[in-house]
């Protein structure tokens, strides 16, 4: 087990180094300019592209610049605005629940606390980790669909369960790399390691990726 873990740690180091070189500007692909703005975008991002989320959220915030105005709005009006992101009913409930938490319980501040954030329906571990990592720099791993897929292919994990993948990443990447490895995984998954037809011949990990050796 110890020997296996040190092998996977070595694999993690090679992975991080190669991806950092390939994607030196890797960062969160959701636009945001304040904590609650990122949280709302995170809620809207379920099963939706970041590009669509960024457009729709900009529209929402142009009409409602603060959380109080969202909390007090008719849900049907909010639903009409965020409809392009899909899953309209559940996302409307989440957006309004988040806005109410902000104004009624959190004194207008987004908490640096994964468990508190997960009290909002629609905010799961992935989004809560994204928020605390991006806003507060709290070490946290965001396991999205790209991260889950590429980590299994590379050989960092054998699981497809996001909670287990998160733990496996935390075991072999140093804490200071947890936020960045999430972003790098997304870049890898979009550019080379796509779900249907990975471009292994061009991928910077091809010489050591488990799927390719
Ligand atoms: S070598 Fe292929 S399977 Fe491995 S990470 Fe790169 S694209 Fe994905």
Break the fold down into its secondary structure elements and pairings.
Blueprint: H1 2-22, H2 35-44, H3 50-63, H4 67-71, H5 75-82, H6 88-105, H7 114-117, H8 125-136, H9 145-154, H10 162-172, H11 178-191
Helix pairs in contact: 2-3, 2-6, 2-8, 5-6, 9-11
Question: Judging from the principal axes of the Cα atoms, what is the shape?
Answer: elongated
Bound molecules: iron/sulfur cluster
What value does the average pLDDT take?
Answer: 95
Helix content: 55-70%
Could you say what the CATH architecture of the largest domain is?
Answer: Orthogonal Bundle
- For CATH, the homologous superfamily of the largest domain is named as Hypothetical protein, domain 2
When the domains are counted, the total is 2
Instruction: Please identify the structural class as seen in this structure.
Output: mainly alpha
Number of strands: 0
Uncertain runs are: none
Q: Termini separation (Å)?
A: 21 Å
Q: Largest beta sheet, briefly?
A: none
In short:
By secondary structure, the protein is mostly helical. Helices cover 60% and strands 0% of the residues.
Note down, in words, how this protein is organized:
With 213 residues, the protein is an all-alpha fold. It has 2 domains: 2-26 and 141-212, Endonuclease Iii, domain 2 (Orthogonal Bundle); 35-136, Endonuclease III, domain 1 (Orthogonal Bundle), CATH 1.10.340. 60% of the residues lie in helices and 0% in strands. The chain is built from 11 helices and no strands. The longest helix is centred in the N-terminal third of the chain and has 21 residues, at 2-22. Bound molecules: iron/sulfur cluster. Iron/sulfur cluster (SF4) binds next to α9. Iron/sulfur cluster binds at residues 150, 153-154, 192-193, 198-200, 203, 205-206, 209, 211-212.
